Each structure stands twice: as structure tokens, then as C-alpha cells.
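Researcher: Let's continue the batch. This sequence belongs to Response regulator, and it's 219 residues. Same format as the previous ones, please.
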Amino acid sequence: MRLLLVEDDELIGCGVEAGLRQAGFTVDWARDGHKASLALDTTQYALVVLDLGLPRVSGTELLKRMRDAGNDVPVLVLTAKGTVVDRVGGLEAGADDYLGKPFDLTELVARCRALLRRAQGRSIDLIRYQNLTVNPAAQTVQIDEARVPLTSREWAILLQLLTNLGIPQSRSRLEESLYGWQEEIESNAIEVHVSNLRKKLGANLIKTVRNIGYVMEKE
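Model: Same format as before. Here are the C-alpha cells for Response regulator:
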């Protein structure tokens, strides 16, 4: 899943970006509110991790613009301001959760996963589909009781399809979920990864939708 990190502090940003990538997310990092606004206008994100104290456009203003424009992507606010008034202000501006600085990286990742579960209508992290058991936190996939090793790209495609059951995902949408700003998109990569997933998980698991893309059907 592709996340947008909006943080102007280089040290904090580097740590958060590395932690989110290690947790299996694709991360774009914007260092001011203006660049974040442009990113949100051009890219569909699963989640935004947003610092409030930003240059050019403040995090609070950016959040208000997002909600006024009808963008309902989950937002986790990060801020050094820890008073009740600040927390309430951030939530009333449209934030879905709030984490004060300094924070533990494992808590940040856990809160991100919780927001994504809520957005997807799930109460637990495990996803069960047919004979698959998928654990996004552990990044594991099992067929019945047997664990199946996946590459990071295969994992990202599987999760994108599983969290959008019944909704065909175009090649470009799948590429968006796999590749961040600094990553080169490989030619025919989606087709290759889908083929590998079919070999590992079952030939009929992922359906091809002619002239559109791929889908995993609702049970």
C-alpha cells in the first residue's frame, strides 16, 4: 500500500520513512505542505501521515483543504504540540488519529495498520479469503497451514487486490501501489508478478478483466 508522509524534519522523516518501508509500505515523502498538496492531487494514497508544523502550507490547512475537496483518505497526525486543545483541533480539522512527538515507531506502524483496517471495514489484522490466511502485520501468507513465500512486489499486489475485492484494479493503479517517487517502474512487471502469484497461490485466484486489469472476486 502506498502512503504519503508529510514531514519537514529530516531526522524524523528519515526514521519514519525507513520504518514504514520495513513494515511493507510504499512511501512518498513530501517535506512541505505545498508539495504534499500536489502529491494528493495526482496520486491515490491509502493513508497520509501528516505533521502539523509544516512550511509553506501548514498541516492543519492542508488537512482542511483535503476534507473540503472530499478526499476522505485516513490521516494520522504527528505533532510536537501535545495539549488537549491541539489534539482536539487536529481531530476536528479532519484527522482520524493523533500521535504526539516523540513517539515510538512501532506504535506509529500499529496506528497506521489500525486506520487501514478501519477504512477497509476490518476489526482484526488477519485477512481470510478462500483457503488463504494473510497477515499484513507479519507480511505472511498461508495456504491452509503451509506458508507461501512471496516477494515484496507480489505481496503488495496481493494486498491491493484483497483489500479491493470485486473492484478491478488497472495496471496503472497496481503500479501506483508498488512504486514510490524514486523507483523506476519495470516494463511488464505487473503481468509477471500476477503470473507468479497464480503459480504460488492458485491459477484461478486472480481474474483478468479484459481491457481493465485484475480482480479478486468477492466470496
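Researcher: Any comment?
Model: The mean pLDDT is 89.
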